[in-house]
Task: structure prediction
Amino acid sequence: MHVTTLNPGKPSHPPHNHPQEELVLVKEGTLESSINGQKDRIGAGSLLFFAAHDVHNVTNIGETPATYYVINFYTAATATVRDQPAADWAPSGMLRSSVVHWEALDAKPNAVGVRRSYVNSPTLTFANLEIHASTVNPGAPASAAHRHPWLELVIIRDGSLEVSLDGRKQTAGPGSIVYMAPNALQSTRNPGTVPTTYVVFAVSSAATGKASDN
Result:
């Protein structure tokens, strides 16, 4: 995982491909994505998913710097995926390379705020990939203490989030990243006086087991 800031007019790199499936979350600015030659304009909060070996890059087409997070998860399936663009052969039901615009997400109210769903699907190298954005009201608990067998990565967009992991509490602010290992005992809440918005990446592989006390 890394964070990149592109100056106006600059591309991330020439169009390329690789076996690992890649995720890009835009923090700020305006990007043009290119996936197998198809281009799209995306802004803050939007998500890109690049399936295995699909040819891709991004370019800053705005007038100010653009910053985005790049995330790669590797599983045992990554090493065995076909050396051919996923768009040419991926079976039905597997997530294809995607552009998910923030403004197109359906904001569904819940007891503590609002939830927006990006994707929830198996992919060529993940047993399942589920991504959502939660907005939590001031002082509200985002989740009670629980554990699960898949790993989670959390990126805080704005506000602050108090995170308890195996009994240790920390508070993180905008731009911070939280990694939650499988079966960690976790809970979260908004300790601030303004709403908190964060994006959760939940990833399962063929090796993901059942919930455990360990």
